Amino acid sequence: MKGRTCQVTVPFALHDLEKLSKVIPNSTLIADATTPTKKKLVVKSQAGADLLAGAKKLVIKPTDPNATANDWITVPLAGAMADPEYTFDSDNERIVNITFVGYPDITDGTLYILGDDTATA
After folding, report:
1. Which residues have CB under 8 Å from 52's CB, separation 6+?
2. Contact at 8 Å (CB) between 72 and 81?
3. Over pLDDT 70: what percentage of the chain?
4. pTM
5. pLDDT at 24
6. Which residues contact 84 (CB under 8 A, 6 or more apart)?
């Protein structure tokens, strides 16, 4: 085996600049000094962003109300890479696809976990 990869694409049906700022690398959220409700998200084009440095735990839970932790997927180190594409469509919501890349945990090599991550041997 040469290795494994892990990617998760999550469709965000929202336009919340604060939430998007957390998942778009090389971005800065700015709130207007005189009118704090006026906000903008400035996205830079610089290459070389360290996605691993901002990687966090990602847990995917089914929407089924009967689902348990055994149905979850956990990526211990997931870094977001997002290049939103918007298309004008007055009948539909704007969707931003955010792709999370999984990185192996350097302590034990874990890439992702299927099921309850609290289970022990």
Report:
1. 77, 79, 103
2. no
3. 88
4. 0.75
5. 81
6. 20, 24, 96, 97
Q: What percent of the chain has pLDDT over 90?
A: 45
Helix (H) or strand (E) holding 20: helix 17-23
DSSP letters of 22-90? HHSTTEEEEE-SS-TT-EEEEE---S---TTTT-EEEEE--S-TT--GGG-EEEEEEEEE--------T
C-alpha atoms less than 13 angstroms from C-alpha of 67 in its C-beta half-sphere: 12
**What pLDDT score does 83 carry?**
66
Closest to 100 in 3D by CA, of 80, 75, 84: 80
Write out the two tokens for 52: 């691993």
Q: Measuring CA to CA, which residue among 106, 97, 52, 61 is closest to residue 79? A: 52
